[in-house]
Each structure stands twice: as structure tokens, then as C-alpha cells.
Write a structure and sequence with these properties.
Mean pLDDT: 88
Structural class: alpha/beta
Helix content: 25-40%
Number of strands: 6
Number of helices: 5
Oligomer: single chain
Largest sheet: 6 strands, mixed
Low-confidence stretches: 1-5, 111-117
Order of helices and strands: HEEHEHEHHEE
Strand content: 35-45%
Distance between the termini: 14 Å
């Protein structure tokens, strides 16, 4: 269990109309449940930012979670935005076409921590 904790961590912060979910580690079949739960637990705001700057691997399961989150956020009138994907993650976003439909921004700091998973 300790190994899983070291390879994956999620924090949620709120700053005005923006919720930021910061993900650290590997998003794969073993961690996607916690990743998905953090996305769904995020308070409804105009924008849901997913900070991928410290993600070392994004599997197909992680991509599916992002696609589902995009649909859910858009249904609520908001927008999903990805923040600072590292090159290994950016390649996955390009290969899957997600980069074309989800905005990507650089260096977008967020507010106070709401919860950590």
C-alpha cells in the first residue's frame, strides 16, 4: 500500500471560479479510481483545471477519465482545462486527439487546498 501512496497523489484547490485538481505520479488502472473520484468530487465552478505537471504516466484509463470529466463539466456549463502536461503525457494527449479538444495552459497556480487523496 505504501508503494501506491508514493506513486500517486491528488490535491484539490479552489480559487474563485476555478477548481484545480493537481495530480502527482502515475495515472493507470491501479490509480484511476482515485483520480476519477477526485475529478467528480471537485466543486462545480466555471473551470476545472487538471494540473498534470507532475504526472509521470497517463494510461488509457486516465485518458478515459479525462474524457468523461470533460463531458461532465461541459454538461454543467463549465470547461475542463489541462495544465502543464510533461512531454510523456503530452505525447499521449496528442496521440489520442485529446489535445485538440481540451485547452492546455501553462503555469496556472491555484488557491487553497480543499482535500488530498
Amino acid at each position: 500500500m505504501r508503494e501506491r501512496e508514493e506513486r500517486f497523489h491528488v490535491e484539490t484547490t479552489v480559487s474563485g471560479d476555478v477548481v484545480c485538481v493537481r495530480v502527482v505520479g502515475v495515472v493507470d488502472i491501479a490509480t484511476v479510481g482515485a483520480f476519477r473520484a477526485a475529478l467528480w468530487a471537485a466543486p462545480a465552478r466555471r473551470e476545472l483545471r487538471v494540473d498534470l505537471s507532475e504526472v509521470r504516466l497517463l494510461s488509457a484509463a486516465g485518458v478515459r477519465a479525462l474524457v468523461a470529466a470533460r463531458l461532465w463539466v461541459r454538461a454543467q456549463g463549465g470547461e475542463l482545462v489541462l495544465v502543464d502536461p510533461p512531454p510523456v503525457v503530452d505525447r499521449v494527449l496528442r496521440a489520442t486527439g485529446l489535445r485538440r479538444i481540451v485547452p492546455i495552459i501553462e503555469d496556472a497556480p491555484c488557491g487553497r487546498v480543499l482535500a488530498a487523496v
